[in-house]
Amino acid sequence: DSGVTQTPKHLITATGQRVTLRCSPRSGDLSVYWYQQSLDQGLQFLIQYYNGEERAKGNILERFSAQQFPDLHSELNLSSLELGDSALYFCASSKGGQNYGYTFGSGTRLTVV
Amino acid sequence: EDQVTQSPEALRLQEGESSSLNCSYTVSGLRGLFWYRQDPGKGPEFLFTLYSAGEEKEKERLKATLTKKESFLHITAPKPEDSATYLCAVQAGDYKLSFGAGTTVTVRA
Lengths: 113, 109
Hints:
The structure holds 2 protein chains of 2 kinds.
Chain A: E1 5-7, E2 10-13, E3 19-24, E4 31-38, E5 42-50, E6 53-57, E7 64-68, E8 74-78, E9 87-94, E10 103-104, E11 108-112
Chain B: E1 3-7, E2 10-14, E3 19-26, E4 32-38, E5 45-50, E6 56-59, E7 62-66, E8 70-75, E9 84-91, E10 97-99, E11 103-108
Parallel strand pairs in B: 2-11
Antiparallel strand pairs in B: 1-3, 3-8, 4-5, 4-9, 6-7, 7-8, 9-10, 9-11
């Protein structure tokens, strides 16, 4: 157990629907990162939050949004889902600041049918 | 934009057959280079962080080294349990990690 908790582990939904993925960071970590991993793309950075504030944005679609709450857990919202959104979504956390690596959760596997 | 290229894409080894994985990178202001191990369907697991050229780190059968343009992950006398995808990532000024596509290592008994 890495200490980073992601729920749900699996999600199957239809095109056009909206889902919410949840992440609880490791105790003491202030930064949360979201990554998407598909078979042909590798790990792609989506967005980072630090202590409730958005810190950096990657290749995140406009249909996707995220937030980090006062208790530091984070949610990634995916809307108007398309078949191509099927992927593993990982959350990672770190203490923040330079030179800290991430601790990853076990991921949420999203299947859009 | 940060670029990380890993080679080879796949590596098949016999148990005990040592080999090396390469990670070449282009980044402005490297803060750290990270190696992760990922098993199928699981999250990446942290292995090493390297901060400056010439630095080396070891863990069991794995040894990571860093130059100004690339990093190597050496696997010495691998065992079947070393089979996994090994991911390299660089961290620059904005603290996010940019990952390479990975090298999938298969070790046969």
